[in-house]
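Exam review. A common question shows you a sequence with its C-alpha cells and asks you to describe the fold in words. Practice with the pair below. Do the first one on your own.
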Amino acid sequence: MIESLMKYEFLQNAFITGLLIGLIAPILGVFIVVRKQALIADALSHITLGGIAFSLLLGKFWSSFSTLNPVYGGMVFSVTGSLLIEKLRSVYKHYEELAIPIIMSFGIGLSVIFISMADGFTTDLFGYLFGSVSAVSRVDLLIVLGISMMVIVTIFFLYKGLFLLSFDEEHGRTMGLPSKTINFIFIVTVALVIAISMRIVGILLVSSLMTLPVASSIRIAKSFKQMIFLSVLFGEIAVIGGLISAYYLDLAPGGTIVVIAAFILLLVILYKNVQYKFQSGR
C-alpha cells in the first residue's frame, strides 16, 4: 500500500483529499449537530447531486461544457441551496425545520429530472454518488485544500459567535452578535464542504461523515472543544481505514468510510454501556 501510494499520483490525491475532508467535515458537523440541523447535510447533498447531474447533462449536449469539472456545478447548486434554506428559515419563523425537507425534496426532484434527461446513470455519476479513489484529480485536491484553509480560518475567527449561536441563537442576538452574517457564512461553508467531499465520500454519504463521528464523540466528550477533537479523530480514523479497505477490496470508498464510522459509533456505545454497568455495580 505504501509503495503504491508513493508511486501513483491518484492515490496520493485521494489520501490527502480524504485527510482534509476527515478534518473539516466533522468540525462543521459538531456545530450542525449542536444546532439540531443534522439533516441539512442531506438536503445540501441532494441539491449538489442536481448540480452534478446538470453539469454532466450540459457536457452531453454541448461539447464546450464537457471539459468543465462537474464539481463547480455542484458547488453552485449547493451554495444556492444553502442560501434558500436560510431564506426559508426566515419565512417560516415558527417552523424553521421545514426549510430543510423543502430543499431536500427540491434537490431530489431536480436530480431525477436531470438524470432522466441524460438517459440514466453513467459511470461518472456513480463515482459522484458513492465516491471513487481513482476519480480524485490534482485539481480536485487543490480545490479541497483551498476550501479546507477557508474552513479553518472561518472557524478560528467565528468560533465564539458560532458557539453562542449554536447553543442559544436568541441569547446570541441579544448580545449583539451579527447572527444573520455568521449564519450566512456558516451555511455557505457547509455547502462548499459537502460539494467538495463527493469525490471521496460520495454525495449520498457525505452527511454521514459530518454526523457519525460527532455522534460518537458526544457520548464520551467532557467539553465542547474535546467533542471537536474527538470528532476529528474518529473522522480521520474512518477516512484512513475506509480508503485502505476500498483500495484492497476494490470497493467504493464512501461505503467503507461510513461503515467504519458507524462501527466506531457502535464501539463507543458499547463502551459507555459497559462503563455504566460497572459504575452502577450491576
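Now try the second one, then compare your answer with the model answer below.
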Amino acid sequence: MNLRPKRRPVPMIPIVSLIDIMVILLIFFVATTTFKKDKTQVKITLPESKSLGGEAAVPEVRVAISIDDKQQVFLDGQPVELEQLAQMIKALKEAKPGTKLELQADTTAALGKLVKVWDALREAGYSINDVPARIQRAQ
C-alpha cells in the first residue's frame, strides 16, 4: 500500500503562443491606428486688401418676399395675395431675368403660410434652395 499521495502534474501554460498572439495584436493596432499631425506648422496673419476682391465686398441686391406678423405677404414691399404670388414672381422673373429672391418671415409667421410661399416659388420656377431665408441678428 502506497501512503504517499500522488503528485498531480503542474499544468503548463504555453507562453510562446500567447506571445505570438500579443505580437499579432500589437501589429494590428499599430497598422490600423491613424496618427494625426498638426497641420498648422506656422501661424500667420493674412493681409487684408481693400482694392482686391471688390466684387465680394459688394452685397448682392435681392427682391424680398416678406411675411409680417399679421400673416400678410409682400413682394418687394408691395402687398400681394397668396393666390397671385406665383404669377407675380413669374412676371418679375420675365421682366428682370437675373433677379434673385430672399424670404423674410416674422417670428410669428405660420408654417402653413411659409409652405404656401414655397409652393408659389416652385410654381414660378424657383428652387427653394435658391431663395435664402434672412434672419436678423439680435442686437
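Model answer, second protein: The domain at 60-130 is CATH 3.30.420.270 (Nucleotidyltransferase; domain 5). Strands lie at 63-67, 73-75, 78-80, 101-105. Full marks require stating both points clearly.
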